[in-house]
Amino acid sequence: MSDIAERVKKIVVEHLSVDESKVTESASFIDDLGADSLDTVELVMAFEEEFGIEIPDDAAETIQTYGDAVKFIEANASA
Amino acid sequence: MFDLTGKGALVTGASGGIGGAIARALHAQGAAVVLSGTRVEPLEALAAELGERAHVAPCNLSDAEAVEALPKAAAAALGQVDILVNNAGITRDQLFMRMSDDDWSKVIEVNLTSVMRLSRGVLRGMMKARWGRIVNVSSIVGVTGNPGQANYAASKAAVIGMSKSLAAEVASRGITVNCVAPGFIATAMTDALTDDQKAKISGSIPAGRMGTADEIAAAAVYLASPEAAYVTGQTLHVNGGMAMV
């Protein structure tokens, strides 16, 4: 697992208080991990801070699963 | 009770009577305050009077860019904006049939849109902190209406609706959003009235007098306090019984 995937997982586990084993590639934040819409906004904020990137609103809307988040950040984070 | 030690508060319209009183009261409860307004001199004078824990951040609320920058400037001065008091407001009174688009949009821009922008600007920090207080100064006329003030009344009613919606969104994060709705308050604005006019106004208020800026400030301090954690989406009317809603 990449370093980014690891860091994203840590944020998701901490923020949504879910078991690490539930955070799978296709796990949907809302449908599988119990997030509400405000949680997803907070997750995006946390990703932005952790990786020093800006995630525009239209991109944020496409980040529905843990896999989506990792993919987006891998493509956009510089480090 | 109502101890605000360690909290940072941004107050708009702090160069005015009510805003100044709110800033003083928050500061007296231990908060650090950022005083915002358009007129620099009264802000500097108030900051000098308060001494420590007081900063000045002038801002023209009809300038969108300046409004976006204000929460950042306040956070830089305070470390974190825990309390936002949207007090600034303007009037452009005119009979409805003579009201220009400009009279309308200027009032909406400052009294409503800037409240949205500033609230949005401070929310990220409040969400992370799991604690925040937004206190919006509305007005009794936002609930009762007032001839000659269609624009002002619309903006003040809109702030109440906006506050309720935002309150519902962020309640689970320890952030409350409430309004204070002053009735007739004695300020520089009402000093311009004749004694006759003042007597007439007072006669229509059950308490028999106009309110003071300090009485509005006390309501703001309560809503900003840790003790008001379970009060959100509410409008606290401070009007001497002028309207009981």
UniProtKB/TrEMBL annotation, chain A:
<protein>
    <recommendedName>
        <fullName>Acyl carrier protein</fullName>
    </recommendedName>
</protein>
<dbReference type="InterPro" id="IPR009081">
    <property type="entry name" value="PP-bd_ACP"/>
</dbReference>
<keyword id="KW-0275">Fatty acid biosynthesis</keyword>
<dbReference type="GO" id="GO:0009245">
    <property type="term" value="P:lipid A biosynthetic process"/>
</dbReference>
<comment type="similarity">
    <text>Belongs to the acyl carrier protein (ACP) family.</text>
</comment>
<dbReference type="InterPro" id="IPR003231">
    <property type="entry name" value="ACP"/>
</dbReference>
<dbReference type="GO" id="GO:0016020">
    <property type="term" value="C:membrane"/>
</dbReference>
<keyword id="KW-0444">Lipid biosynthesis</keyword>
<feature type="modified residue" description="O-(pantetheine 4'-phosphoryl)serine">
    <location>
        <position position="37"/>
    </location>
</feature>
<dbReference type="InterPro" id="IPR036736">
    <property type="entry name" value="ACP-like_sf"/>
</dbReference>
<keyword id="KW-0276">Fatty acid metabolism</keyword>
<keyword id="KW-0596">Phosphopantetheine</keyword>
<dbReference type="GO" id="GO:0000035">
    <property type="term" value="F:acyl binding"/>
</dbReference>
<keyword id="KW-0597">Phosphoprotein</keyword>
<comment type="function">
    <text>Carrier of the growing fatty acid chain in fatty acid biosynthesis.</text>
</comment>
<comment type="pathway">
    <text>Lipid metabolism; fatty acid biosynthesis.</text>
</comment>
<comment type="pathway">
    <text>Glycolipid biosynthesis; KDO(2)-lipid A biosynthesis.</text>
</comment>
<dbReference type="InterPro" id="IPR006162">
    <property type="entry name" value="Ppantetheine_attach_site"/>
</dbReference>
<dbReference type="GO" id="GO:0000036">
    <property type="term" value="F:acyl carrier activity"/>
</dbReference>
<dbReference type="Pfam" id="PF00550">
    <property type="entry name" value="PP-binding"/>
</dbReference>
<keyword id="KW-0443">Lipid metabolism</keyword>
<feature type="domain" description="Carrier">
    <location>
        <begin position="2"/>
        <end position="77"/>
    </location>
</feature>
TrEMBL record, chain B:
<dbReference type="InterPro" id="IPR036291">
    <property type="entry name" value="NAD(P)-bd_dom_sf"/>
</dbReference>
<dbReference type="InterPro" id="IPR050259">
    <property type="entry name" value="SDR"/>
</dbReference>
<dbReference type="GO" id="GO:0051287">
    <property type="term" value="F:NAD binding"/>
</dbReference>
<dbReference type="Pfam" id="PF13561">
    <property type="entry name" value="adh_short_C2"/>
</dbReference>
<dbReference type="InterPro" id="IPR057326">
    <property type="entry name" value="KR_dom"/>
</dbReference>
<feature type="binding site">
    <location>
        <begin position="152"/>
        <end position="156"/>
    </location>
    <ligand>
        <name>NADP(+)</name>
    </ligand>
</feature>
<comment type="similarity">
    <text>Belongs to the short-chain dehydrogenases/reductases (SDR) family.</text>
</comment>
<feature type="domain" description="Ketoreductase">
    <location>
        <begin position="7"/>
        <end position="183"/>
    </location>
</feature>
<feature type="active site" description="Proton acceptor">
    <location>
        <position position="152"/>
    </location>
</feature>
<dbReference type="GO" id="GO:0004316">
    <property type="term" value="F:3-oxoacyl-[acyl-carrier-protein] reductase (NADPH) activity"/>
</dbReference>
<keyword id="KW-0275">Fatty acid biosynthesis</keyword>
<dbReference type="InterPro" id="IPR020904">
    <property type="entry name" value="Sc_DH/Rdtase_CS"/>
</dbReference>
<feature type="binding site">
    <location>
        <position position="38"/>
    </location>
    <ligand>
        <name>NADP(+)</name>
    </ligand>
</feature>
<keyword id="KW-0444">Lipid biosynthesis</keyword>
<comment type="function">
    <text>Catalyzes the NADPH-dependent reduction of beta-ketoacyl-ACP substrates to beta-hydroxyacyl-ACP products, the first reductive step in the elongation cycle of fatty acid biosynthesis.</text>
</comment>
<dbReference type="InterPro" id="IPR002347">
    <property type="entry name" value="SDR_fam"/>
</dbReference>
<keyword id="KW-0443">Lipid metabolism</keyword>
<comment type="subunit">
    <text>Homotetramer.</text>
</comment>
<dbReference type="GO" id="GO:0006633">
    <property type="term" value="P:fatty acid biosynthetic process"/>
</dbReference>
<keyword id="KW-0276">Fatty acid metabolism</keyword>
<dbReference type="InterPro" id="IPR011284">
    <property type="entry name" value="3oxo_ACP_reduc"/>
</dbReference>
<keyword id="KW-0521">NADP</keyword>
